[in-house]
Design goal:
By secondary structure, this protein is an alpha+beta fold. It is 37% helix and 23% strand. The strands form 4 sheets. A 6-stranded antiparallel beta sheet has the order 7-6-5-10-9-8, sandwiched between helices. Strands 11-20-19-16-17 form a 5-stranded antiparallel beta sheet, with helices on one face. Strands 12-13-14-15-18 form a 5-stranded antiparallel beta sheet. Helix 5 packs parallel to helix 9, helix 9 runs parallel beside helix 10 and helix 12 runs antiparallel to helix 13. The longest helix has 35 residues.
């Protein structure tokens, strides 16, 4: 039992190691105590109690199966059974720090629930010591219903085709006892394997779309292909690694993934052992393929629409001009959520004489209207900044008036900074914030600090609201960072934690590189990962280490 759930955890979470700890195991007590109130997630074990670290180390040693266990730097531990009285602990382990995310915790909890079921008391048995036929049938019905319920819930929250592949793999491995599940989609005259996302997910495999292998034949004919054992496939198609039919010598089921009248690809279910796939089992497998096909079609249509909206949004973002005496780097990262198209933007306006304005803003909302409002605000603000050589607070006050006069809809937060390069190499910054996250300054020595100020109203709320300017001087080598809230805000978390995360990332990364573009990209990767939950716009302005005279 342990080996199965260890294998499932490693496969589904793409983690280096996993372990199942039971009450009788050495050092089990600290782990059982740790999960009494629910799952424990440590992106980095630094700071964890020595007792817990020792227990995790013992679990890693068990997972190594007699080999030399690697050090553990990140761990998820979930209770096997109810919190408060766990029957054991299921762990996912990594030798390096890892931002696990809520999905990984939920995934491991699902596995733990299945593990708890196998540890439960034995079911009533018949005279021969085996489950009675009626109980076995009921168990099959319950399993199938649970599988389809889990499938529908998982696919409803899918944000990409890789999520669909992951959900199908999870249902096949946990509910149907498969040893391998893979989704293949048609791409022109080839089939491409959809890889569930993860740090250790291998590169997608590709096959020609032809009838000389079962995946291609299933797709071309739109008909399932069944084999009680892998040898039956080799007898029909010949022995070839290009069959891509998964490990093991057991049964194989190839199901067409249908979208309307077209076949989009094939779903492969493979078992480790030979088995007869009875007709009674087939409807639930057919339902699995049908759900997958519908989900893929929905996501592809939504992704096409989102791609068009992102193209529109990115076309509204400006090309950052050269700011004399300053180095500038700007980035925009869209949200991974399919229904999010935000109003985040950045901009910079040279004013001549070594002066420039820099702005980062965020329109309230995540739809096409927000993107449209963003374009209007950017244009109005650029015009005001160029027309009036005024301090940022005065420009924002004028923007409030313009939004009313020009009937620009919506609300927005933004921070506007005026920069003036001096002959001695320093740069004076005056900035004003309209309800926006505070700027940060990364000093030349690698220290990072937040520029705190009392909060003020967003633009678009009312005319005549009092606004204030704040000043800071950047020395040679210092960097000013403006960004939108998606970089630091997380649901259920105080903003201070996000700001500290950003400050720490800036300091750490600055010690590794002096290249502004490399630094910004590394910080974005640290804080956002591969699938940002919100749009992010960022603008970094650095004063060169060498003295630069102001432009004429």
């Amino acid at each position: 039992m342990r080996a199965r759930y260890v294998r499932l955890a490693r496969r589904l979470l793409r983690c280096a190691a996993a372990a199942v700890v039971l009450p009788d195991d050495a050092d089990a007590a600290p782990l059982l105590a740790a999960v009494e109130t629910g799952p424990v997630r440590l992106d980095d074990v630094a700071g964890a109690s020595p007792t817990l670290l020792r227990a995790v180390g013992q679990a890693a040693a068990t997972a190594a199966r007699g080999g030399r266990p690697a050090p553990v730097r990140a761990v998820i531990a979930v209770p096997v059974g109810r919190s408060g009285t766990p029957r054991g602990v299921l762990l996912a382990l990594e030798p390096e720090p890892r931002a696990w995310g809520d999905v990984a915790v939920a995934m491991l909890a699902d596995l733990a629930a299945g593990c708890a079921g196998e540890l439960a008391a034995a079911r009533p048995t018949g005279a021969a010591g085996r489950p009675s036929a009626s109980l076995a049938e009921l168990d099959d019905l319950t399993r199938n219903a649970r599988a389809l319920l889990g499938l529908s819930e998982g696919l409803a929250g899918a944000q990409g085709v890789d999520d669909v592949a992951h959900v199908a793999e999870m249902i096949g491995l946990i509910q149907f006892g498969c040893g391998h599940v893979s989704l293949w989609l048609r791409d022109g005259e080839e089939l491409e394997q959809v890889r569930p996302r993860g740090p250790r997910a291998p590169a997608p495999a590709r096959l020609p779309l032809s009838d000389d292998h079962p995946l291609g034949e299933t797709t071309l004919l739109g008909q399932p292909r069944v084999a009680a054992r892998r040898g039956d496939l080799e007898a029909r198609y010949g022995r070839s690694d290009d069959l891509r039919v998964g490990p093991g010598r057991g049964a194989r089921l190839f199901l067409p993934v249908v979208q309307g009248d077209a076949v989009a690809g094939a779903l492969l279910l493979a078992w480790d052992q030979p088995r007869d796939l009875a007709d009674a089992e087939r409807p639930v497998y057919d339902a699995l393929a049908s759900y997958v096909g519908q989900a893929v079609q929905r996501l592809q249509l939504v992704e096409e629409r989102r791609a068009a909206l992102l193209t529109l949004q990115e076309s509204l973002l400006p090309r950052i001009p050269v700011l004399p005496g300053l180095a500038v780097c700007a980035r925009y990262r869209p949200s991974a959520a399919l229904d999010h198209v935000g109003g985040d933007w950045y901009d910079a306006v040279p004013l001549g004489g070594g002066r420039a304005l820099a702005v980062v803003g965020d329109v309230v909302g995540h739809d096409l209207r927000a993107a449209s409002t963003m374009g209007q605000l950017r244009t109005v603000l650029r015009t005001l900044a160029w027309d009036r050589d005024a301090e940022p607070a005065a420009v924002l006050a004028r923007l409030d008036e313009a939004m009313v006069a020009l009937d620009v809809p919506g609300l927005a937060t933004l921070v506007l900074a005026r920069l003036e390069v001096s002959a001695n190499g320093t740069t004076a910054v005056t900035w004003s914030s309209a309800g926006h996250p505070p700027p940060l300054v990364l000093a030349a020595d690698g220290g990072a600090r937040v520029l705190e100020a009392a909060p003020e109203l967003m633009v678009g709320v009312e005319c005549g609201s009092e606004r204030h300017d704040h000043d800071v001087v950047l020395a040679p080598g210092d960097t000013l960072l403006l960004y939108t809230d998606g970089l630091v805000e997380r649901s259920g978390e105080h903003l201070d934690r996000g700001l500290e995360r950003l400050r720490a990332s800036l300091s750490t990364r600055a010690a590794l590189t002096d290249d502004l573009d490399v630094l910004v990209d590394a910080v974005l990767d640290d804080l956002l990962g591969a699938r940002p939950c919100d749009d992010v716009a960022l603008l970094a302005v650095r004063v060169p280490r060498t003295e630069v005279a102001p432009a004429p």
